[in-house]
Design goal:
The chain is α/β, with parallel strands linked by helices. It is built from four helices and 28 strands. The chain has an eleven-stranded mixed sheet. It has a nine-stranded parallel sheet with strand order 2-5-8-11-14-17-20-23-26, with no helix packed on it. The chain has an eight-stranded parallel sheet with strand order 3-6-9-12-15-18-21-24, with no helix packed on it.
């Protein structure tokens, strides 16, 4: 096998699909119907199992457990469920990720270019976009959605079925029980909107005029004490539309758990 490096103590299922350039460290286990893309790096004492696909150039560090059974009482070992992970993800020490459940569509989906710091947990049926960060011991319950560029601070917990909008950031040690709108900075128990994510917007090179419009929309949505339906109507009538404001409005209209206050 071309350029594949497997430590002599590693245990590899003969049915695993291993691409060129993969390296697997000491005492790691690759079990089940696993597919490893080009140049995946797996450290020592890792377990990769289940119907799991890992895209090219991912780096998985010591002790990570990827693809083990969902922590859901309804799950059966006969269930046909999956974990699909994109490219260029960094999965640090002791991270855990579970596949989907039949009730949730059967798949947990992780995009590309994400960073999962040590002890982070991605539960069943989550959908994670691209360029997200989960800091140390951040945890997602089942059915959580992270849009692109979302950031979750260390030791924060996200309730099941919650959505985190694009370019949002959750402060460390927070409890997230309702949807976090795009471009927001939130923190607390439960989280509250502090302001727009100025640093994230700048790093994403969002135009200054769009940032100004977003700040105006946020004042209406979260500072004037209006019912959410009335606040959304006021934003639509008083704030000039741009792609970012349009996305914010769509996100607010489609919330099922409600928006954090």
């Amino acid at each position: 096998m071309e350029n594949i490096k497997i430590h002599k103590t590693a245990v590899i299922n003969p049915g695993a699909k291993i691409s060129p350039g993969v390296s697997i460290g000491p005492y790691s286990i690759v079990d089940g119907d696993v597919t490893l893309g080009d140049n995946v790096r797996i450290g020592s004492h890792c377990v990769i199992t289940g119907q799991t696909k890992i895209g090219a150039n991912c780096k998985i560090f010591t002790g990570a457990v990827i693809g083990s059974a969902p922590q859901d009482r309804k799950y059966s070992t006969d269930d046909n469920v999956y974990l699909n992970i994109g490219e260029n993800n960094v999965i640090r020490e002791y991270v855990t990720m579970n596949p989907g459940t039949l009730d949730g569509g059967g798949k947990t989906i992780v995009g590309s270019n994400n960073l999962f710091m040590a002890y982070a947990h991605v539960a069943h049926d989550c959908v994670i976009g691209n360029n997200c960060v989960m800091a140390n011991a951040a945890t997602l319950a089942g059915h959580v959605t992270l849009e692109d560029n979302a950031v979750i601070g260390g030791l924060s917990a996200v309730h099941q079925f919650v959505r985190l909008g694009r370019l949002s950031i959750v402060g460390g040690c927070s409890r997230v029980v309702q949807d976090v709108p795009p471009f927001a900075m939130v923190v607390g128990h439960p989280v509250k909107v502090i302001r727009t994510n100025a640093v994230g917007l700048q790093r994403a090179q969002i135009p200054e005029e769009s940032v100004r419009l977003l700040n105006r929309a946020y004042k209406i949505l979260f500072r004037q004490g209006l019912p959410k339906t009335r606040a959304i109507e006021k934003v639509e009538s008083e704030v000039e539309m741009c792609p970012e404001v349009e996305h914010l409005i769509f996100f607010c209209k489609t919330t099922k758990r409600g928006l954090c206050s």
